[in-house]
Structure formats: structure tokens, C-alpha cells
């Protein structure tokens, strides 16, 4: 296979006696492995590489930097449909003869044999379905021991192109000028067949352009038309008047009706664009600090056009799938079929099609969420990371626990590309790099056109409660402003950073609170599904009618989430059309797009949502934003809590008053003296940055140190505590420069039945031996796990935790 094997191609390799996997060729050499028995290639799958050399380089860097295996990175990178694996199948033993069988067979075994007499092979899944049980392996094992069947492995290629059935006229009818007229004369007594032919000629006017017949029409166009007879269509196919054929088509067809448009820049935007290009002449990375509504997207579009004119590819990263629908619509008007979209809501086949489109060069611009950094770019010249401050760029589980913003910077470095980071509220680390001159810094502090920043007003909920001005969770001021907007046919966004109906329920008589069986958290109440649900492991159960501790029926909900806000608002404002946008309402593939489309078309007056409504959405008719419970975001045990709270408040405020209308933001809080609110009202990011950077320097947090979080897990609480203590001791012995903190029991100390302990390592930013530190951490973990009492300890390493 020497001439068939190449770097970046997939090959079939056998592991063990039966298991077969597809693998990526990372290197071709002539040094046989010394430490283990070589695996032999069984088959070469691809004729051309599916993974490029720059990808292999970034995969290796990620494995080393984020302290995981190369296999874990590749598993996360490749769409599932490109990862072939074997599925066990059974077939009749070649030597088996029914008439010579001496074994007594059970009814289930007889069923399996009968099925194998009707078809040559069965998968394990098919056997389970046949017997209608998940405990079917014992019957397979029994038949194996009796030497009646054998097991083998079959490789399944998961990707399948989209195929459509089409119909067209028999070409002979077009070769002779009078043939069609003669056909119509023959069918004069069969009007239904004439209708089908007339419809075909109307949709594909072959008499004007005979080449149109070669393309044909989707058969579905004929069969789904209620005016056409299905039997007439079939009759024409049988006679050979129409012929059916199949065609492979793209899952991302180009909409010819979308006219490509230009988005001319204002003088202010043109100035920002020029500054960015000037910085790119001497620096690889630029931070664009542009307030909400300043027109950053138009600047991005112009820079993308500039990169494409130079022949390069562009990656445009977004933090959330929710943003793609709006931005893709705008970009499609500019770049048409050169634009590809990539995110997790796509099917496996759709993702492979985008992967192949990037590989072939069909897609020169890709808009995607964090996973799109894995795509096979071969000539990347620009990466744009929009809303670069967002924690959504961080992958938490499983490994690799990467931050797409950091990987994008390294990816650009490997390709020799430029990176533009954009945000109205940059992360403190990014702003620090820009202020120190490591990156370029361009500021846009005016809104586009006639739009102005919204007016912000604080409402003291404690004072409102004393005055009896609170209507459930809404102050009189907020309700009054919402009603005013509804009268003016303007729109409202309400932000509450918690989904569900209520965080928990409790018994008024004994205080009982339902807890998750697997996690150390209370169960949240979801009214729509009438169930209690754990937001950590997914456990759910029906809402109880009475307290299981004392039997009382006096159960009440405590706190509130987006579902409750929506519910109460429908009672308070029955005339309003209200929609909710959170994880529960956006599970389906097109749910995001539908909610956004309804809001854009003014079919919805009030949009209630979690963080999803804070991110980059652009609605011209929104004139009011309400933040229902600001305190829950600020008072959080995390060194980034204030930075995140400021960012969230500013981002959601930025949805108001974007197209010339004066917007208003109402923040409900029990602590109006909190300094962050003043900075939000003045839109003073610089003041927030100075406060945060001073705190972090004083206490040793990023950007002055690098953090590594080690989470120790065990099903037994004592073993977890002892394992964490031993590991912390081992790390302190091995690491001289870095500071080892902990172990510490986290606020939520049990998730999915595993008890947790955390160790934090602070690595000085200028510490030369970061690579060596990680090696020592890996050795310390390995040494602890070799001890018999800790062999079941699970250790998770998170580099640069968000």
C-alpha cells in the first residue's frame, strides 16, 4: 500500500481480535515501532486527504497545550460521519447444516435462525429489535458455542450524499420537431396525462431551451401538486414519455433569488477599517473595541472582501448558534455561494458537506461556532472572532477543554493569517494585551448613523416592595414602560439569567426541598412539562402532589426563571404576543431561527430570554430592555463575576435603540449602590478594566498568571478527599515555581454521582517552563493513580479555565 497511503487520509486498522477502526495517517516513515506490536493497515479509504497538514499541526498543539490525547482532539474535530467504526454482525456458520443439527434451540434462537434464512446477515441492533429485548447477547453467545453462527465486523461509511429523484421528457420527443405535437394528439382522450405534460413544459420550457430537459424537474414537484394525478405520472413513466433519474445535490443550495448587495461604510467605519489594516501591516492580532450598535459587522464584511480579493479563506467565529441566523442572512447577500455555515445543530451529513466544501475550496468564507476552528482550511488569511469575551468559546466537557479564541490565535499563526477580535466589552485579558502594545487596538465609540446609546435607569426592588409597587417580579416602573412600548407598537426584550419556572420548590410545613439523586443541587421546576429537572445531569421526575417527608400538600415554588416570567407576563399583559428564548425552547434544529424570525417580523412583542438574548442580535424596533434580577449575576463566587456581569448588562442593553429610536434600559436590583451599575449607566468600560486589572494584579489572577484547574472525582467521598490531598502534596513536591492551591471542595460538590475536589495551579505568566510544568502534572496524576486505593480516581485537567 506504499503508493496508496498519504498524510491526512483515512485508513482501516484492526484493533484486537474483532474491532476495526478508521484512523488518520499523521506521518509516513520507515521506522517500525519499538515499544508495541505494529498494527497493519487493512484498507485505504480516501483517494485524497480529508485532513490538511495545518490541521494536524493544530491538533498536536492542542493535545499538548490542553493536556489531553491527540485522539481526543481528533475525535472532537472530525464530524461523526467521517469517523468509521465497525458494527458487529452475525451470519450462519458456513459448516452448519439444519438437518444434522443435534442441538436443542430455544424459541428466540429459532427466531434468529429463521431471520438468517431470509437474509444473509444481521447486525446486533437488528437482533435486539427482532427479539424485542436488550438482553439478546446470551442467545448470540449460545448460538456461537453451538457453532451455528459466526460473528464478523463490517465497516460502515456513515456519510451519504443527498440524492433527489428527478424526471424529464424522453429525449427522442425533442429530437423530432413534430414528435411532441403527435404525442399530445395521442393523449387527447387522457386529460390528466396532458395536465402532467403541460405542467412539466411550464416549469421547464424545453421548446425555448432544449438544454433545460437535461436538468429535469424534481419528481416531488409533480407528486406533491394536488392538481396532478399520481396515476397519470406513473403511466407516463411506464410508457417512457417521462424518464426518472437520480441526482446528487448539495444540502446547501444557492438561493438565486438573493441579490448580492454592497454595504457601504460610513466615514467613521472607513476610518476604523483603515486603522485595522495599518495595524495588520505590523501586528498579527488587532482588538476592535466597538460599542454595541457601532457597525462592527459592516467593517468585518469589508475586511472579508479584502481577504477574498487576495485569494485567501476567512473564518468568522461566533459564540452562539443563535447569532448565525441573523448574520448569515447579511453575509449571504454579499458572498452568496462562497459562504459556508458550520455548527452543532447541523446533521452529520450536513457537517461533512461543509467540511468537504472547505477542503475543495467551494466555501471561501465560513461562519461558525467554536467547532469550526477544526475545519480543513488550506489558505486561511483572516480569522474574525466576534464577541471575543464570550465564555461560550470555551469547551468544558469532554476533552479537549479548549478556548476557541486562543486556538484561533494559534491557527492564524500556523497559517500566517491575521486575527481580528471584536467586542463591545472585551475580556480583561484581551484588553490588557492590546493596552500593552502586544496587539493593535482600534476603538469605535459612536453608534452607527443616527442611533444613540440607550438611557439606563435603576429600579430599587427593595424600596418598591416597601411601597407595594411590585407586581410579582415586575416593578411598577418596568410594567408601565412595557405597556407604553406596546401602545407605540415597539418591542421589548426581558432578560433573566435562569431558565425553568422556579429554581426549586419547598414544603411550607417542614421545609423539605427535592434534591437530585446524583448531584448536590436542588431540582428546578419546569411548569410546561410539569416536572422537576436537574440542570447538571438531566435527571427529571414528575412534580409531586405532596411532600414526601411529611405528606403536606402545601408546596410552593421559590425564585423564578424565564418560564415563570413568561407565564406571569401573559397574565399581566394579555394583549401582548410573548415568546421565550432559552435552552428549553431552542432544542430543535430551526427553533432559534423561528423565534428570531417571528421577532424580526414583529409577530412577537416581548422576547423573554436567558443569555441568548444578550448576544449580538440586531432588532430595529426594540426600544426597551428590562433586566429582571441583576443581583444574581453579580453575586457569584468567581474572580470574573464582575467582568461578566458588566458585559452581560452592556450587551443586553445594546439591543435597545439601534435604528434611530431612543432606547431605554431598566435594571431591577436590590442594591443600587453597587459600583458596576454606575459603570454600565456611563458605558465606561475603561473604568471597569482599571478596577479589575488592579484587583487581579493584587491577588494574582489572569492575565498576570496562567491558571490550571484539576478536578478530582470519585464515587466514594472519602476516597475523593484523600486522593485530592495526596495529589496536591505530590504537585507541591514536584512544582517549585508555580503556586498550588487546594484541594478545595467546590460549591456543588457532587455531580452525576461523583464527589468532587478541586486543585488550582497558578503559573506565572513569565514562567519559562510551562511545558515542563504540564509534564510534571501529568506524571503526578499517573503516580497517584498507580496506587491501588486510588485506581478508580478520575482526574480532569482544565488549562485556562473560563
From TrEMBL:
Helicase C-terminal domain: residues covered: 542-699
Cofactor comment: Binds 2 zinc ions per subunit.
Binding site residues for Zn(2+) 2: 516, 519, 534, 537
Superkingdom classification of source: Bacteria
Pfam family, one: PriA_C
Co-factor requirement: Zn(2+)
Keyword Transcription regulation: no
GO molecular function: 3'-5' DNA helicase activity; ATP binding; DNA binding; hydrolase activity; zinc ion binding
Keywords: ATP-binding, DNA replication, DNA-binding, Helicase, Hydrolase, Isomerase, Metal-binding, Nucleotide-binding, Primosome, Zinc
Domain Helicase ATP-binding: 277-444
Chemical reaction(s) catalysed: Couples ATP hydrolysis with the unwinding of duplex DNA by translocating in the 3'-5' direction; ATP + H2O = ADP + phosphate + H(+)
Alphabetical list of HAMAP family matching this protein: PriA (MF_00983)
Family designation: Belongs to the helicase family. PriA subfamily.
Subunit details: Component of the replication restart primosome.
The name this protein goes by in its record: Replication restart protein PriA
Species this protein is from: Adhaeribacter soli
Gene for this chain: priA
Amino acid at each position: 500500500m506504499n503508493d496508496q497511503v498519504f498524510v491526512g487520509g483515512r485508513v482501516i486498522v484492526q484493533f484486537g481480535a474483532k474491532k476495526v477502526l478508521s484512523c488518520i495517517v499523521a506521518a509516513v516513515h520507515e521506522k517500525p515501532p519499538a515499544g508495541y506490536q505494529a498494527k497493519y493497515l487493512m484498507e485505504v479509504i480516501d483517494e485524497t486527504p480529508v485532513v490538511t497538514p495545518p490541521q494536524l499541526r493544530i491538533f498536536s498543539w492542542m493535545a499538548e497545550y490542553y493536556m489531553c490525547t491527540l485522539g481526543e482532539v481528533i475525535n472532537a474535530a472530525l464530524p461523526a460521519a467521517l469517523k468509521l467504526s465497525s458494527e458487529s454482525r452475525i451470519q450462519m456458520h458456513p459448516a452448519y447444516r439444519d438437518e444434522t443439527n443435534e442441538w436443542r434451540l430455544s424459541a428466540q434462537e429459532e427466531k434468529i435462525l429463521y431471520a438468517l434464512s431470509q437474509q444473509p446477515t444481521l447486525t446486533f441492533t437488528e437482533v435486539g429489535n427482532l427479539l424485542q429485548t436488550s438482553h439478546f447477547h446470551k442467545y448470540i453467545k449460545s448460538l456461537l458455542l453451538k457453532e451455528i453462527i459466526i460473528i464478523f465486523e463490517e465497516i460502515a461509511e456513515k456519510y451519504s450524499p443527498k440524492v433527489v429523484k428527478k424526471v424529464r421528457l424522453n429525449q427522442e420527443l425533442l429530437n423530432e420537431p413534430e414528435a411532441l405535437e403527435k404525442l399530445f394528439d395521442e393523449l387527447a382522450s387522457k386529460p390528466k396525462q396532458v395536465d402532467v405534460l403541460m405542467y412539466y413544459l411550464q416549469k421547464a420550457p424545453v421548446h425555448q431551451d432544449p438544454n433545460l430537459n437535461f436538468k429535469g424537474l424534481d419528481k416531488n414537484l409533480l407528486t406533491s401538486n394536488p392538481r396532478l394525478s399520481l396515476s397519470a405520472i406513473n403511466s407516463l413513466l411506464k410508457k417512457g414519455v417521462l424518464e426518472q433519474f437520480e441526482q446528487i445535490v448539495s444540502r446547501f443550495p444557492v438561493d438565486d433569488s438573493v441579490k448580492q448587495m454592497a454595504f457601504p461604510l460610513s466615514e467613521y467605519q472607513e476610518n476604523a477599517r483603515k486603522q485595522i489594516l495599518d495595524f495588520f501591516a505590523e501586528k498579527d492580532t488587532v482588538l476592535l473595541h466597538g460599542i454595541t450598535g457601532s457597525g462592527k459587522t459592516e467593517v468585518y464584511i469589508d475586511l472579508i472582501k479584502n481577504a477574498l480579493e487576495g485569494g485567501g479563506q476567512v473564518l468568522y467565529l461566533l459564540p452562539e448558534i443563535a447569532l448565525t441566523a441573523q448574520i448569515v442572512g447579511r453575509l449571504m447577500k454579499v458572498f452568496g455561494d462562497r459562504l459556508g455555515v458550520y455548527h452543532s445543530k447541523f446533521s452529520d451529513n450536513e457537517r461533512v458537506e461543509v467540511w468537504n466544501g472547505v477542503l475543495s475550496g467551494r466555501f471561501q468564507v465560513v461562519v461558525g461556532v467554536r467547532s469550526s476552528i477544526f475545519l480543513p482550511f488550506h489558505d486561511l488569511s483572516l480569522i474574525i472572532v466576534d464577541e471575543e469575551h464570550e465564555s461560550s468559546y470555551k469547551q468544558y466537557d469532554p476533552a479537549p477543554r479548549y478556548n476557541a479564541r486562543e486556538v484561533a490565535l494559534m491557527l492564524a499563526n500556523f497559517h500566517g493569517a491575521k486575527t481580528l477580535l471584536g467586542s463591545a466589552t472585551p475580556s480583561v485579558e484581551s484588553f490588557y494585551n492590546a493596552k500593552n502594545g502586544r496587539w493593535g487596538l482600534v476603538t469605535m465609540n459612536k453608534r452607527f448613523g443616527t442611533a444613540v446609546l440607550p438611557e439606563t435607569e435603576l429600579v430599587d426592588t427593595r424600596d418598591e416592595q416597601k411601597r407595594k409597587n411590585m407586581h410579582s417580579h415586575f416593578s411598577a416602573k418596568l410594567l408601565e414602560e412595557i405597556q407604553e412600548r406596546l401602545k407605540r407598537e415597539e418591542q421589548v426584550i426581558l432578560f433573566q439569567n435562569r431558565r425553568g419556572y422556579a429554581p426549586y420548590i419547598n414544603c411550607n410545613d417542614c421545609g423539605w426541598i427535592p434534591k437530585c439523586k446524583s448531584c448536590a443541587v436542588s431540582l428546578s421546576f419546569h411548569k410546561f412539562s410539569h416536572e422537576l429537572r436537574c440542570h447538571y445531569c438531566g435527571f427529571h421526575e414528575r412534580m409531586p402532589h405532596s411532600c414526601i417527608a411529611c405528606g403536606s400538600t402545601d408546596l410552593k415554588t421559590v425564585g423564578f426563571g424565564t418560564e415563570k416570567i413568561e407565564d406571569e407576563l401573559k397574565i399581566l399583559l394579555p394583549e401582548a404576543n410573548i415568546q421565550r428564548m432559552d435552552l428549553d425552547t431552542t432544542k430543535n434544529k430551526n427553533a432559534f431561527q423561528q423565534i428570531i424570525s417571528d421577532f424580526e417580523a414583529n409577530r412577537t412583542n416581548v422576547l423573554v430570554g436567558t443569555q441568548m438574548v444578550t448576544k449580538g442580535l440586531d432588532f430595529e424596533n426594540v426600544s426597551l430592555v428590562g433586566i429582571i434580577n441583576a443581583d444574581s449575576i453579580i453575586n457569584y463566587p468567581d474572580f470574573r463575576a464582575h467582568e461578566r456581569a458588566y458585559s452581560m448588562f452592556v450587551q443586553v442593553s445594546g439591543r435597545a435603540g439601534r435604528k434611530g429610536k431612543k432606547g431605554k434600559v431598566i435594571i431591577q436590583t436590590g442594591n443600587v449602590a453597587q459600583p458596576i451599575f454606575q459603570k454600565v449607566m456611563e458605558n465606561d468600560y475603561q473604568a471597569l478594566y482599571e478596577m479589575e486589572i488592579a484587583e487581579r494584579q493584587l491577588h494574582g489572577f489572569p492575565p498576570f498568571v496562567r491558571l490550571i484547574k484539576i478536578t478530582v472525582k470519585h464515587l466514594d467521598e472519602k476516597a475523593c478527599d484523600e486522593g485530592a490531598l495526596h495529589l496536591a502534596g505530590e504537585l507541591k513536591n514536584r512544582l517549585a515555581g508555580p503556586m498550588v492551591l487546594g484541594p478545595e471542595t467546590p460549591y456543588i460538590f457532587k455531580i452525576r454521582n461523583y464527589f468532587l475536589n478541586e486543585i488550582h495551579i497558578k503559573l506565572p505568566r513569565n514562567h519559562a517552563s510551562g511545558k515542563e510544568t504540564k509534564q510534571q502534572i501529568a506524571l503526578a496524576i499517573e503516580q497517584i493513580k498507580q496506587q491501588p486505593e486510588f485506581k478508580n480516581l478520575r482526574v480532569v485537567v482544565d488549562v485556562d479555565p473560563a
